[in-house]
Structure formats: structure tokens, C-alpha cells
Write a structure and sequence with these properties.
homodimer; alpha/beta; 391 residues; Peroxisomal Thiolase, Chain A, domain 1; globular; 2 domains; nine-stranded mixed β-sheet
Chain lengths: 391, 391
């Protein structure tokens, strides 16, 4: 199980800025990220394109997106397919790309994540996002993802006697890091006081606890690790040391323990086993901070903090770029932005930037091992990747 | 290229009847097909579930479908993702399942195709299907798939001086075969006269040229070929000898030659090369007869007839169960039905039935090699599989 037939390396990365990109349509966003990744890898063609996307059908009236993009970037004829796993679509597409290379079915694969969420009314986008929940048992009752996360956050505050202010370190760290990322949607630091005074959107969640609705695209180029030296010649190679996906119920009320992300536990521990590593070996962790509460639950399930102690990890400063386990080093979902189907690829692109030493003002000193975790729904699909840089 | 690290076998198949299944919801349809396939393979768990589906978001308000189904069939925790390539979603999901097994990332994989199209108004379903076309250059002008195929059929009739009546053998053969398939939506033979008198829906396409809007689900279980003997013990093993996907422009007006399915040519000829076969070796061909014209264009692009000669192949009787190259042996998209994201899996399940000798009254005498071809859009994504039975 999970013994890859061929190791896989990332030899090219590309991304667009994240924001309300009204001058670029869905196909243009995909084009921009894919062309940047191809240029970074020094390739002019590929065997396949896999696209992570959640909402192109609902919000742009465009299914069949991967084939459309393959043609639009000049690769008419190659294999193409779209992969969907709600907000984990990006990492799910990366796994398919890895399988294509590792299986021998392809040698050069492009994986892109693309999402366009701001061309529709906010209420339409919110309703479309709710399709990640259980339609018959959650959404039909009026649940949005904001409401579901608000219930989780309130339960956590009750269970562990935590005040709302204790969550401040997560958005404060994300915004601090976004300030150094030219592609971030909100590149400005915020204070604890600003967090405390932020408008509440679904109590106890305030606007600083919530990632934004936005547009963006990111892409990577994958090749067999043994051929990585032939591509992206002036770049340090990044190897995918582990990749694992796990699932849970869509509906939160069906879970054994709503405050324990079982799929995060499963996928992270499978990934540790594949790479022969422990949480202590991870130099940075791009986690899925769609809401502040998700950062805390993810850190606990992945073994960086005991249950109920994720908050203390934030308060200790361990999550900052100077800390023991830096998270959201380029701004995370909160401040870089969360174009849902693209997020999993942004996380991977940012870890590659850090491992290559290309993270600009946000560069960590000599990171060697980076982890990403992409979450679909309120914890129903969770995908973990561990990337290892070259010395 | 395309040298699989591990060969892959199909050791379980399952399907639901196709029709207007108002008493089964999306999750129930998936459940029924998956449980049938698991029972057929004799398995109680799996490593991953990949689901081919096009329209669950638009028509049922349910994305994140694969994870929902994994939980609903009792496999909470396993990897799950949905694969979308318009009407080729089923075969695209099968390819991902193959990659998972061939790469060593999984040992036992379930691939299901699920679609529910009859719970919405026909106009809504038609609009949702149109998202497989180019939204900005075709759909915005009012094109539906019926309209696009009508243009292709009219052009073919003009180009090769073919009367409409010459297409009759395709729906007549499909309905003849559906009569022996208990899962078919329209299990009744039709005559040439009935074809000639059928109501026109978009000239020159009449209702007998068009596959129906319907619900259905089909599934297969994949394992490494070297372990196939451990599963489905009383069944004859079926090996996937070839799998290839190719793409073209979404918009028909961008193609070099609209009457030549370049992606069908590419994917079928890649598949022939992988399997070391030629069209003459194929004992049956489950092609994508969403419209009569598509059968003709597919037969020509795949080398069963010269260009402009697909019609003659139909008239010769070669496409019937007694002919040289039997097609749509269980009714095809026209008469078994076309629940879009499920179709690619129905085709594979039916070929497995034939290769195992389980096709009932429609059983071909000793078929050994079967081919399937699943088409997304009006020829934009085309995926070919070649399956080989045990002697």
C-alpha cells in the first residue's frame, strides 16, 4: 500500500494573484497559472492536464473545464480531466497527477487549481459552496459553511473554556505573512485589537476568522523524480515524499467527535508513515485555515498539539515564521485568499517556494521538509502532502 | 509512455436499471451500483472510490459526491474523489482508478459512474448539459447539444449525399439489443418505418436519433491483475489491456474538420498500440451513440470504416450481434439509456458481461476482446478502453 512505483518530483510552479479578478475569466486564470508553471519547468508540452475545481459548472456555466484549458493553453489533444472534492479539489487533482506519473501512464503532467467566485452575487456563491455539505441532511436545513464552522468554534470554546480572543494569533499570523506575499489578497498586518473589534458574521465567527470569496489559479508540473534534473534546470528539485487522502462523513452530526478531524488524523499519519517522519520533522505546515477554528483542529489532529491545546500553540508563537512550526507562511487561506478549488495548489506552490529559497521576504531559514493539508467541507475530505527539498 | 507499472483487472461489476428512477436519490443510485460491484467481487472494503459524475452540483445541489458515497456505502475513511469530463466522466474516472492501482497507491479500487437527471425540469437538465460546450463561444449563442449534433448530422448528409433514412440501422440495432437487456430504459425493438416517422426534435435529428435524459449508476472493482485470482472467484477475469484519453476543442467551429473526431482517432489508435491490436481484432465495440451521427463518426475515426463509409457499415448489418463488429450490444446510449456521468461505466460493465459470458439473451459467441469509447461534449474528450477476457 502506498508504495509508489515511481517517485514524483515537482519541477515547475505558477500562480496568479488572488483577489476579485474581474478582468480575467475562468479560462484566462487557468491559462496564466499553467503557462507560468510550464515556463518555470522549461517545458513546451505535457502528457496530461488535471484540474482541481469545485464550482465552474454552478458559477460559470462551464463544465468540461480541463479539456477547455488544455486547448486554451495550446495543448489540444492531451489527456484532460477535472477533479472535484469540494475545497480539497486542488490536492485531489495533485494526487491524480501523481498517480498518472507514478503508474507510468504519463511522464510530464500539469496539475492546476482554478476557481472564479466573484462574478456571481455573494448569496449565489454562498449557496454554491454549501453543495460541499450534505444536501439532504445539512443544506436542506439552511446550513452554510459559515454556520457549520460557527457551531464547531462555539463548541470548542465551550468544551475547553476558551475565550474568542484566544483565536487571534491565527489570523494575526496569516495577515503578517500575507504582507510579504505579492500574490496575497489582503497583504496587510492586523492587530489583536482589530481582530477583537471585527464585525461578527455568524457568532462567534467574525470577519477575521473567515477566509474570503475570491478568484485565483495555481499550477505545478510533475515528472518522475529520476528525470527531475532534466527540467527547471536552475531550480532545486522538490520531491513529493508523501501523499494521503482520507474521508469522513459530510454531515458533522454523523461524526463520532465533531471536534476531532478524524480524516486529518488518518491522512497526516499515513503521510508520516510514507515519508518515515514525525510532526517534529516538519519545518513548515501550510494548513487549511478557511476559518480560525479549522487551524486549531488541524494542528491537533495532525499531532502538533494535544487535543484542546491548539490554542496554546497559537499563543506560544510557535506558528509564526520564527516559531517551531510555522503555518500559513504566505498568508494562508485567510489572507492570501481561498479560491476554493485552487487552494490546494497554492499551498503546494508556496511550500515549493520555501523549499527552493524563493519565498522573498517571507523566506524561512533553510527549510527542508514542508507539509500541506487541504480540507473539503467541514472535514469530510482531507488530503496531506509532504514535500522534501534538495539540500 | 503508457507502459503500466502494474496491469489492472476488473473483478467486480454492478449496475442499476436505467430510467426515470424517482424513488432512488443520487446517493441511493450510487449505493446500489457500488454494493452490487462489491458483492460481485467478493470484497467488503476498498482503498479508494472514484466517481464519474457531471451534474450532481447543478441538478442535485450536491458536490463532494464521492466522499458522500464512500460514507453511505459503509467505507467512511477511504480516499474518494469525483472526476468530471462532461459525458466522458465515467471513463475518465476509470482511468483514475487504473492509475491508482497501477501506481501502487491503492490495491483495491471502486470506480462508479452516477447520474440523476430526471428530478429537474427538462429545460434545466438541457441547460446543465450545455455546460459541456464552450460557454463563451457556443452556449452563450444558444447552442444545446441537440443543436450541435444536428449541425454535424446535416453537414454529414450534405458532404456524403446521405439521406436521413440511412441512419436507421443504428437506432434499430440499439433497440433490438435493448430488448434483451433487463436494465435498459427502452427494451423494445423498433422498425425502419417507426424511425422514419419519429418526431423531429432538431432537424434532421429525430427522437430515435437521440439518447434519453435518465438516471442510472454503474460500478466496477479494480485490482492488480496478478491478484485477480483472489477475487470474484467464480468469475472469468477481465484485464484492461489498453486505456487512452485524448482531447479536442470544445467548440466545434474551432476544429480543423468537424466531421472527423480527431480525439477518437488519437485515443483509439493509442489504445490499439498499447494492446498490440488492430480494429480487426475487436470482437465488440460499445461506442458512444448519444446521437446517431456520433456512432457513424466514431466508427470512421476508429478505423472500422473509411471516412464517409460509416453509414455503409450500418447498412451492411456488420454492427448487429451477428455482424463483423457488433456495437451497442446491450442497447447503447440510445436504448439502454445515457445517464451521462455513468455511461462510461455502463459500457465497461456490459463488455465485461459479454467477455464473461453473462450477457443473457444478448450473449455474443465467445467474444475475447471488447472495446469501449466514451465521448464528452461533441467530441472534445474521447476515452477508449480495450478489455480482454480469459480464455
Amino acid at each position: 500500500m502506498n508504495n509508489l512505483m515511481r517517485d514524483v518530483a515537482i519541477v515547475g510552479i505558477g500562480q496568479t494573484p488572488v483577489g476579485e479578478l474581474w478582468d480575467r475569466s475562468l479560462r484566462h486564470l487557468g491559462h496564466d497559472a499553467i503557462m507560468a508553471a510550464m515556463q518555470d519547468a522549461g517545458i513546451e508540452t505535457a502528457d496530461a492536464l488535471f484540474v482541481g475545481n469545485m464550482l465552474s459548472g454552478e458559477l460559470a456555466g462551464q463544465q468540461h473545464l480541463a479539456t477547455l484549458l488544455a486547448d486554451f493553453v495550446g495543448l489540444r489533444g492531451i489527456e484532460a480531466a477535472k477533479i472535484e472534492a469540494a475545497c480539497a479539489s486542488g490536492a485531489a487533482a495533485l494526487r491524480v497527477g501523481m498517480m498518472a506519473v507514478a503508474s507510468g501512464m504519463a511522464d510530464v503532467v500539469i496539475v492546476a487549481g482554478v476557481e472564479k467566485m466573484t462574478d456571481t452575487l455573494p448569496a449565489e456563491t454562498t449557496a454554491a459552496l454549501a453543495t460541499a455539505g450534505d444536501q439532504e441532511y445539512e443544506v436542506a436545513e439552511g446550513a452554510t459553511f459559515l454556520a457549520l464552522n460557527a457551531m464547531l468554534m462555539r463548541r470548542y470554546m465551550h468544551e475547553y473554556s476558551v475565550p474568542h480572543a484566544a483565536f487571534a494569533p491565527f489570523p494575526v499570523n496569516a495577515h503578517q505573512n500575507a504582507a510579504g506575499n505579492p500574490n496575497a489578497m489582503f497583504p496587510m498586518a492586523i492587530s489583536d485589537a482589530r481582530y477583537a473589534k471585527a464585525p461578527v458574521v455568524a457568532p462567534p465567527i467574525n470577519i477575521m476568522d473567515s477566509s474570503p470569496i475570491c478568484d485565483g489559479a495555481a499550477a505545478v508540473v510533475l515528472v518522475p523524480a529520476e528525470r527531475a534534473a532534466d527540467y527547471g534546470l536552475d531550480k532545486r528539485t522538490v520531491r513529493i515524499a508523501a501523499s494521503a487522502s482520507a474521508t469522513d462523513t459530510l454531515a458533522i452530526h454523523d461524526r463520532r467527535e465533531p471536534l476531532f478531524l478524524e480524516a486529518a488524523y488518518l491522512s497526516s499519519h499515513k503521510a508520516y508513515a510514507q515519508a518515515g517522519l514525525t510532526p517534529a520533522d516538519i519545518d513548515l505546515f501550510e494548513l487549511h485555515d478557511a476559518f480560525s477554528i479549522m487551524s486549531v483542529l488541524s494542528l491537533e489532529a495532525c499531532g502538533f498539539a494535544a487535543r484542546g491545546q491548539g490554542i496554546a500553540l497559537g499563543e506560544s508563537g510557535a506558528i509564526t515564521r520564527d516559531g517551531k512550526i510555522p503555518i500559513t507562511t504566505m498568508g494562508g487561506l485567510k489572507a492570501r485568499g481561498h479560491p476554493v478549488g485552487a487552494t490546494g495548489l497554492y499551498q503546494v506552490v508556496e511550500v515549493v517556494q520555501q523549499l527552493r529559497g524563493e519565498a522573498g521576504p517571507n523566506q524561512l531559514p533553510h527549510p527542508h521538509i514542508g507539509m500541506t493539508q487541504n480540507i473539503g467541507g467541514s472535514g469530510a475530505t482531507i488530503i496531506t502532502h509532504i514535500l522534501v527539498g534538495q539540500d
